[in-house]
Design a protein that fits this description.
This protein has one domain: 3-Layer(aba) Sandwich (Aminopeptidase). 34% of the residues lie in helices and 28% in strands. The strands form three sheets. Strands 1-2-3-5 form a four-stranded antiparallel β-sheet, with helices on both faces. The protein has a four-stranded mixed β-sheet with strand order 4-6-10-7. A two-stranded antiparallel ribbon has the order 8-9. The relative contact order is 0.17. The protein binds coenzyme A (COA). The site of coenzyme A has 21 residues, from helix 1, strand 5, helix 4, strand 6 and helix 5.
């Protein structure tokens, strides 16, 4: 598996990952109405491209196939974290999480934070995140339960 940075032209493949992750994986934990609001089939692709270009995610590839993506903003906030609906529990999320931790270490960040879906909370907990507070953001008129999770990072060793 290769993890690389986002490249222009990835946008449509990343939408397929986002869409299938929500419709095939998160659908276990959310109602049909919630899933349709979170990832509508008629998502505006111009808005999508703008959003994905703004967050500049890391992209996971198996061969030529994009199978997952996740971002980390310069302040340690993780906005998107999705693995293709056809590829759960194959270690793709863990590779993306490791890449995020490498990036955080290289920037000297002291914490990572994310608003995490019910589906992803066990995965984030496994990677050392703890729930700070629960939230019910309204997305396209529908409440989607999530949780703010954070992880403190060890400070870099002091130089001599
Ligand atoms: C959460 C998600 C990113 C995990 O990606 P993944 O590639 O399946 O994760 P990994 O294979 O690296 O999983 C590592 C471990 O995390 C835990 N884990 C992963 N998914 C889990 C789940 N749905 N329930 C419980 N534990 C889970 C398991 O311990 C797993 O190890 P195991 O498979 O050996 O038991 C993926 O399921 C996903 O995209 N979910 C839907 C979209 C979503 O909710 N994204 C988050 C938005 S904030």
């Amino acid at each position: 598996m290769e993890i690389r940075r986002f490249k222009p032209g990835d946008e449509a493949a990343l939408f397929r990952v986002y869409f299938t992750a929500i419709h095939e994986l998160a659908s276990r934990d959310y109602s049909h109405e919630q899933i349709a609001a979170w990832a509508p089939a008629n998502f505006d692709m111009v808005l999508w491209a703008n959003r994905i270009q703004a967050i500049q995610p890391f992209v996971a590839l198996l061969g030529n196939d994009i199978v997952g993506y996740a971002d980390m903003q310069p302040d340690g906030y993780i906005d998107h974290f999705f693995v293709s609906g056809s590829r759960p529990r194959q270690g793709i999320g863990t590779r993306l999480m490791s890449r995020i931790h490498e990036e955080a270490a290289s920037l000297g960040l002291s914490e990572l934070r994310s608003r995490v879906s019910k589906t992803a909370q066990p995965f984030f907990a496994l990677h050392g995140f703890r729930i700070v507070e629960r939230g019910f953001p309204i997305v396209r008129g529908v409440a989607l339960e999530n949780a703010l999770m954070r992880k403190g990072l060890a400070p870099p060793p002091r130089g001599i």
